[in-house]
Amino acid sequence: MSDSFLKYLQFQKRYSSLTILSYQTDLHQFQLYLNQDYDQLPSQEANHGIIRSWIVKLVEDGLDPVSVNRKIACLRSYFKFLSKQEVVAKDPTTKIKILKTKKKLPHFVQENEMAKTLDQDITEETEFDKQRNRLVLELLYGTGMRMSELIGLKNASINIQDRTLKVLGKRNKERVIPFTARLSAYIKEYLKVRNRDVEKKSDHLLVIKNGLPLYPVMVNRIVKKYLHNANVDKKSPHVLRHTYATHLLNRGAEINAVKDLLGHSSLAATQVYTHNSMEKLKKVFDQAHPKA
Fold first, then answer.
1. Cross-sheet strand order for the sheet of 158-159
2. Model's pTM, two decimal places?
3. How many structural domains does the chain have?
4. Fewer CB within 10 A of the end CB, N or C, for the chain?
5. What percent of the chain has pLDDT over 90?
6. Mean pLDDT of 229-251
């Protein structure tokens, strides 16, 4: 049944390939647990007590609560699917509660550090790599898009004249993001070098030297290298998304506008960035108020 569930996520729910892979891994781990402790019981026959015992084992093994909660979410979706298919009469996950987690503020790069990151000139890179890698950073920071959205960018997604681009976000939801004249110039420069140095044509904007689309491991590698050279602590593409949102709010952007730019479905997901802005306001207050 797990194969049918994964196909359902792919073709009907239209989940991303990374999410489907995560769910597939979670279900596989759950089945391994059932094989070992419950005489190879099929996953669809697991009851509330068995599921709860697996969660307890994960916690005792020291798995991070956030990861445990993702596995709970996977099983909830799985048994909800089985209920709709009338494979199970009762959903055993209805009374399974998620674990409490510590709320962490999103990590972001300070404006001066971000300027250093973007102004780097890594001499050992070829001109094509240099132009593409710089554009990767400029797009992530300049638009706040997710890594999956970056990789999926097509040539037709970019409107140089209007300085806007279209991205396909979660649940195949399309949104339009404006970008700066600086970013427009970098896109034009990259396209010149790409069209000259890459023989195989591609519909994708960002490619490797043989013309194939850029892939997640390489995007991570590019971002980590540049952030490392600028002595930034946290190094990931998502940190640049956090940075984009935080800098917009710090400079007075309206939170609902930031929500739409990020492609959040609810304001609650965007409000986490106001905490970083509040920290900055507190510092200003402490420095400026005579009674602080």
1. 158-159, 164-168, 174-178
2. 0.71
3. 2
4. C
5. 72
6. 89
Q: Residue 70: pLDDT above 70?
A: yes
Question: How many degrees, rounded to 5, is the angle at CA 116 between CA 115 and CA 120?
Answer: 115
> Mean pLDDT across the stretch 96-108?
85
Chain segment 19-54, per-residue pLDDT in tens: 899 999 999 999 999 999 999 999 999 999 999 999
Same domain, 116 and 207: yes
- Clarify whether residues 244 and 170 are in a common domain: yes
pLDDT at 72 over 90: yes
Same-domain check for residues 27 and 145: no
Q: Which domain holds residue 45?
A: 2-84
* Domain assignment of residue 237, yes or no: yes
Same-domain pairing of 115 and 209: yes
226 and 138 in a single domain? The answer is yes
pLDDT band at 232 (very low <50, low <70, confident <90, very high): confident
The dihedrals phi and psi of 154, each to the nearest 5 degrees, come to -105, 160
C-alpha angle 222-155-166 in degrees, rounded to nearest 5: 90
